[in-house]
Specification:
By secondary structure, the protein is an all-alpha fold. About 70% of the residues lie in helices and about 0% in strands. Helix 3 packs across helix 5, helix 4 packs antiparallel against helix 5 and helix 11 runs parallel beside helix 13.
Length: about 220
């Protein structure tokens, strides 16, 4: 399929009611057409993997087209330059998390970008760093405990960020790493109790929620 045909199909499948619902969850309605992630996955399966089409879909600026791009792109050919270009375009938690879990976590520099982005100032770039930590913990079965444990000091350091989309991602990363196995659970609980002592509303929320779920 040509990129123009895919975009036409997206628009045809779109539902204005879905766009209104997405707006309530922080998705820019001007950039969305109202296609569900389930439908996007069906389209991705039909299209197949195609790096060039993924690049073209991303350039369209359409919310669903960008999620679809992350589903059909090929992690092995994705370069750091592309990741940096795309992450700068993140404008919602939805596009951030979808791209991280569909594509970025499968690249050979996923750990590197998780560390780097977690220190950035932009809200959704920073969220991407912690989203990567969370999905790496779930998807990367070969990741060693000692590598995942390197995320804990970063999680503690950034736990005072009061921005909603950042603190939720920090919490997500802590919980997902802790769920991986008993050893990481102990370390996650230890980190959560350390965070609980920090004089910060955000830190306390992150810690309490993680402790509640990991228990």
């Amino acid at each position: 399929m040509k990129t123009t045909e895919i975009i036409e199909e997206l628009k045809a499948k779109g539902d204005p009611k879905n766009v209104k619902g997405m707006a309530r969850f922080g998705i820019n309605p001007k950039k969305a057409v109202g296609v569900s992630v389930t439908e996007l996955r069906k389209m991705a399966k039909k299209i197949g993997k195609d790096h060039q089409i993924a690049i073209e879909l991303w350039k369209s600026g359409i919310h669903e087209a960008r999620i679809l791009a992350s589903m059909i792109d090929i992690a092995e050919v994705v370069r750091e330059e592309q990741m940096e270009e795309w992450v700068k375009d993140f404008d919602s938690w939805g596009i951030c998390d979808q791209v991280c879990m569909n594509l970025f976590d499968q690249t050979d520099i996923a750990f590197k970008k998780a560390f780097e982005w977690s220190s950035r100032k932009d809200e959704f770039v920073k969220r991407a760093g912690f989203s990567l930590m969370a999905v790496i913990a779930v998807h990367d079965k070969n990741a060693e405990d000692k590598e995942l444990m390197k995320f804990f000091p970063i999680i503690k350091r950034e736990s005072t960020d009061e921005r909603n989309y950042v603190k939720k991602a920090v919490n997500w990363a802590l919980r997902q790493i802790g769920k991986r196995n008993s050893k990481l659970k102990r370390e996650a609980m230890k980190t959560a109790h350390e965070i609980l002592k920090i004089d910060s509303k955000s830190a306390r929320w992150i810690a309490h929620d993680a402790i509640r779920e990991l228990r």
